[in-house]
Amino acid sequence: MTRLCRRYGVTRAGYYAWRRRPLSAHAQQDRTLLTEIARVFAQHHGRYGSPRIHQVLTTRGWAVSRRRVARLMYTAGLRAKAVRGYRAKVGTHRFYEQHPNRVRALAVQRRNQVWVGDITYLTVAGEWRYLAVVMDRFSRRILAWTLQRRRDARVTTAVLRTAVRHRRPPAGLTFHSDRGSEYLAAPFRDRLRALGIQQSASVSGPGDNAHMESFFHSFKAEAVRGVAFATERALRQVLRHYFRYYNHTRLHSALGFRSPVDYESEAA
């Protein structure tokens, strides 16, 4: 102790007086606030960073700045699950040029105006599974999903059928996807035509189906990254829980920090 005091130029009496001194009011508030931050962080399984946690605290009546929340989280080592970058898909066929992007400059103002879809891959005991999802672009609400062992037009047609059954969209809906063969194959195109749905497809390059790309990256970071699934049943349980959480609870910054379900309810 003597060496430590000598190093920092303080007396032993001064050090012990500092030890006995009570916490300042600000430090006490930080301690209370950090307890609440940690509670919110745990409730959302480490998926929320400082912007969303600040939003939750504000709705609960806390008068606190976002910078203070970020500082306390950093000090406590509370870091949200990060979303990594991705690689763009490359290589398209001339056939794809027949299917233009109809939604790039479109202002989406209501639900069932534009749906978007995509497929990603997951693993179960070292084997591939393919997850196909349909989202309403207006509210970012997940309308339907399916998990299959194959990746073809039967998968995309099945998930589209489920979304239509649940949502029963009026005429005028546009369905947007990338240019994967699962979406541009004849069975899927025929199904859209039979339902009176206009098809839209991305041009080459990243970001043209940004809403689905963003969702899948968040989903993988928050729900499945680092998790080894021994059975398909275990994976399906995680999927059901996450989609319910995403639609009803998870705050979305692009929706004014509301969940997709709440955003649709307020817009109705």
- Unreliable stretches covering 5 or more consecutive residues: 85-93
At the first level of CATH, the class of the largest domain is Alpha Beta
How large is the share of residues in beta strands? 5-15%
Query: How many structurally independent domains?
Result: 2
CATH-scheme architecture of the largest domain: 2-Layer Sandwich
Discrete helix count: 11
Report the sheet with the most strands, covering strand number, pairing sense and barrel closure: 5 strands, mixed
Category from helices, strands and their pairing: alpha/beta
Radius of gyration: 24 Å
How many extended strands?
5
Mean pLDDT: 85
Strand order of the largest sheet: 3-2-1-4-5
Distance, first to last CA: 67 Å
CATH homologous superfamily assignment of the largest domain = Ribonuclease H-like superfamily/Ribonuclease H
* Helicity, as a percent range: 40-55%
Output the CATH topology of the largest domain: Nucleotidyltransferase, domain 5
Q: Rough shape?
A: elongated
